[in-house]
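Run log // design_07
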């Protein structure tokens, strides 16, 4: 499952790929090692590049990329970056610009037809698992919307640990927690099944062993393990989708510029406690109490209190500060904006129906 830079070069050297379009982050293009790859490939191919500027995938920048792709007409798109880059590439490879595109996105009604070309992705963070998921995110007016289609799944992906090592510490921490959160949410999601369960458990076993090691002393081995953990978490949530912690995280990213995984972590324990304390109201077709027992077993804890303590310790040791005062976030003052930005599709996957007053208690009332 782990690849090398040589594997990537051999793949791109295929004679069928004459025109190659690169999509990368403005900063990560240099620090990840993507620039060196680009310089080597452009010696033998006609290449073009777009460097992402926005820290989240936004509509206006997406339109730029779509126009870029459709004008250049590449034989291959290479996306090297985090979840935002990969989501941009996935969308730009299947979505054509049209006057009513914004309304189609808002109404989740884009008529997917085909891919324009071949897409390969190389993650530079171990978190979202976007390289294997059938959905992609876009923000319009700071509100998150999703594209969902099997056509969005990239044709190939390469897990190259070297690309992860240069990421800033806060990105490593945020992305790694995202992988853990996705696996945990997958286990309790209403759409969970035996296959997603298998992926989620495998992901957690790897990430719990390697997450803090990767943050403290990053090396090829633990970077490889975190790549695999994130990939498995992506496979899990591609089936089950995420739940309340993810649904509620998006406005904290768009409104307060908190990195995605960090935003997911803010109220993670509270949402899981809410689900546990409302087991009798579960809307799942599986026994939610058994799933919690499975989670406790994986985390080597006995109950919800010990589980939440373990999650809090992970956040503390990874420097994911959840002090809203320090983060300059006033949830009471901004509750209406936050509520408007919550993703209702993801909220609907929560195992227990969650209402506005429940969210208020969780994110506002101490």
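design_07 sequence
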């Amino acid at each position: 499952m782990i690849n090398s830079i040589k594997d990537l070069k051999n793949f791109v050297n295929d004679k069928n790929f004459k025109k190659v379009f690169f999509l990368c982050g403005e900063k990560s293009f240099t620090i990840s090692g993507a620039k060196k790859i680009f310089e080597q490939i452009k010696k033998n191919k006609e290449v073009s590049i777009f460097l992402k500027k926005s820290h989240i995938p936004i509509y206006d920048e997406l339109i730029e990329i779509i126009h870029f792709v459709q004008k250049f007409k590449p034989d291959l798109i290479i996306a090297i970056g985090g979840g935002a880059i990969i989501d941009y590439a996935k969308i730009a490879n299947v979505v054509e610009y049209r006057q009513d595109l914004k309304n189609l996105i808002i109404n989740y009604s884009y008529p997917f037809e085909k891919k324009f070309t071949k897409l390969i992705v190389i993650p530079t963070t171990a978190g979202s698992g976007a390289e294997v998921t059938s959905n992609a995110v876009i923000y319009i007016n700071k509100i998150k919307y999703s594209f969902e289609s099997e056509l969005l799944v990239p044709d190939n992906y390469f897990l190259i640990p070297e690309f992860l090592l240069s990421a800033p510490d806060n990105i490593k921490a945020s992305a790694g927690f995202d992988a853990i959160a996705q696996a945990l949410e997958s286990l309790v999601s209403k759409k969970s099944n035996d296959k997603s369960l298998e992926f989620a458990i495998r992901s957690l076993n790897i990430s719990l062993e390697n997450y803090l090691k990767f943050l403290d002393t990053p090396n090829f081995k633990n970077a490889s393990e975190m790549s695999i953990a994130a990939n498995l978490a992506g496979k899990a949530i591609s089936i089950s989708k995420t739940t309340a912690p993810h649904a509620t995280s998006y406005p904290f990213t768009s409104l307060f510029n908190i990195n995605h995984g960090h935003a997911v972590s803010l109220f993670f324990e509270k949402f899981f406690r809410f689900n546990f304390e409302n087991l009798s109201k579960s809307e799942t077709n599986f026994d939610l109490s058994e799933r919690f027992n499975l989670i406790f077993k994986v985390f080597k804890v006995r109950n919800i209190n010990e589980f939440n303590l373990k999650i809090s310790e992970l956040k503390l040791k990874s420097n994911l500060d959840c002090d809203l005062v320090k983060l300059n976030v006033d949830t009471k003052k901004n509750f209406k904006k936050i509520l408007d930005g919550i993703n209702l599709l993801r909220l609907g996957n929560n195992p227990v129906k969650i209402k506005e007053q429940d969210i208020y208690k969780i994110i506002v009332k101490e």
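The first helix runs from residue 5 to 12.
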